[in-house]
Protein 1
Amino acid sequence: MMFRSTVVVLLFVSAACRSAAPLPAPTAAPAAPTAAVAIPDAIRWVRDAAEYRAATLQAYRLATSSVEAAAAGRAPGSWAVVLDADETVINNVTYQLERAQQGLPYSSESWAAWVRRREATPIPGAAAFLARVRALGGRIAIVTNRLQSECADTAAVFERHQLAHDALLCRPDGGPSDKNPRFEAVAAGKTPASATPVEILVFVGDNILDFPRLSQPSALAAEAALAPFGTRYVVLPNPMYGSWQPR
Ligand SMILES: [Mg+2]
């Protein structure tokens, strides 16, 4: 008797619970959580930091002072400056950011696609420096390891942002990345920068390989190798990539 009534009560309670707590209506499946991609600090610094902007302006003011001092008394057209392009005159942080957000490294294919977009922007201070060199009578050679096949799109970026230059010397497709032969060609008057020999007064770059006869080992081996920095050589910060990275 007791057993039977317990079963009845339990059945009643069970039915009550079901009616009081109906199954939730089906809903759309929740969106898959997007993995939070951490943007590397090096990219954030270049994109966001006041210190980065201050550093590039500082570098270009130093380059301007160096040129003004070295060019004094020189005939217009008898001297030149040489600059790298990427992360020196134009900024590609958007490319770096997009690759990081995709969790992908640099690739020559994605880089070529970025170059075709022509979306690089001027580095703070660069345009004013180039204009000042022009006003002082200097020639301007941009020596870049962007490929020759990427040169027209690169020239378009320089044109769009009025980044003055006389020669844009890209790397021949399949050719060497060593910039020294192109530096020598500029000095010898064998480029569109000048038809006659010129003295190169200042080099500007973000990579040790943007400076004559320097490399990571040679620049680190003896402090004397770094002596021209601050006068004839001016370096801009680039914590995102460079020849300092292990290969
Ligand atoms: Mg560079």
Protein 2
Amino acid sequence: MKDKESHSIRNGIIATVVGGILLSFWKPFKDIIVSVFSWSWGVIESIWLWLSSSHEIYGWLLLVLALMSIATCVQLLSLMFKKDQEGHLTLYKSDNLFGAKWHWQYNAGDISNLWCLCPSCNGELVYSDFIPNRYDYTHDNLEAKTDFICENCGATKCTLKGDKDYALSSVKREIRRKIRNNEWSNTQNN
Ligand SMILES: [Zn+2]
């Protein structure tokens, strides 16, 4: 009981001393807060005054600023709409087509650097095309074709109609068809 009393006395003394110290600092502290606040308010007021008052400005400068802001708005809007339409440019750059893993890039929206990898070992495939010789009777009824072969696996992974250029254009057509029909989003992780 005695102990408790002495504690409350001690706490009272501490509270008085701390309160006194705080009070002695309060006056200059308050002055600082008031002056900082009034200075900030003055700045805000003068900015608002400048913004709300009319200014002499060259007509051409006003026109340039207006055109720039219109152009920016148009650009922002077109970016928002393009984002969905051109998502394939960043996301769809490979696909498993006709038995091979095709990779490509886009150059000004066109498919470029198209080539294929082996789906089993990821090795680059080499091509071998066959174009029938019309003067050779053994080639009668044979069609032009291009094989894409994995030298690592020793197997033909993909066979397409026509010579190499025709074969690559077939793959490009298939890629463009998938983009048009929005089928690519299902295969982008393949
Ligand atoms: Zn292979």
